[in-house]
Amino acid sequence: MSPRQLTPLRWVPSLYFAMGAPMIAVSVVAAIMYKNLGVSNADIAFHTGFMYLPWTLKPLWAPIVEMPGAPDAAPVATGPSAARQYAAVAGQQAWRRTLSPRHQSAVKKYFEQ
Q1: Whether this model's pTM surpasses 0.70
Q2: Distance CA 11, CA 5 (A)
Q3: Which of 1, 19, 36, 65 is the most exposed place for a label (fewest CB within 10 A)?
Q4: Is there a contact between 11 and 20 (Cβ–Cβ < 8 Å)?
Q5: Neighbours of 34 (CB within 10 A)
Q6: Nearest Cα to 54, choosing from 44, 46, 62, 43?
Q7: 43-47 contact pairs (CB < 8 A, 24+)
């Protein structure tokens, strides 16, 4: 085998590292942010654990999304929903401390839609 040939054994691990590095960075930053907000360790583990959920469930939904001929619109269509969910989890503790009860109820109504 010549040195110019790339086998999957050489490049697939680097792809998995490239996919996992941003997730780890976001999780670490989120944990530090939650700790600075005074959130308990149990709540930090609970909320940051949701960030791993897509990677945990990937074996279930990957065959459907990566089907030949499947529309690429599925990931784009779920983006706004995912953004709302991340905003709800990230801001939960901060909103409790800074918003009045009237504003808290308005935020809850928005995310319950």
Answers
A1: no
A2: 11
A3: 1
A4: no
A5: 22
A6: 62
A7: 43/93, 47/89, 47/90, 47/92
